[in-house]
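User: I'm new to structure prediction. If I give you an amino acid sequence, what do you actually give back? Let's try with this one:
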Amino acid sequence: MARIDEEVETLLALAEPTQYKVLLHNDDYTTMEFVVYVLMNIFHKSLEEAEHIMLEIHKTGKGVCGIYTYEIAETKVHQVKELAKSNGFPLLATMEEV
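Assistant: Good question. You get back a string of structure tokens that encode the predicted 3D arrangement of the chain. For your 98 residues, that looks like this:
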């Protein structure tokens, strides 16, 4: 019996995952120090970066803390919510598709 060798070329199109920005929103109760703490501990920002973002949140009403894949952004939003709640602050974090 004759052997038949066949080559099949397959092209895979891998798309970059959708990115989401995590935002913190200004409120009248959460202290600036706590916002800096959140930025440094959840988003791993340096003190200078955290202060810059905190001032942006204070002046404009919201600020971008980072850009992540959906699952990571969702986790960060949840971490902010839990940390704020356990410290008695109403700090709001949301995520938006980039």
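You can read the tokens as a compact description of the fold. Here is one thing that stands out. The beta strands are 19-25, 62-69, 92-97.
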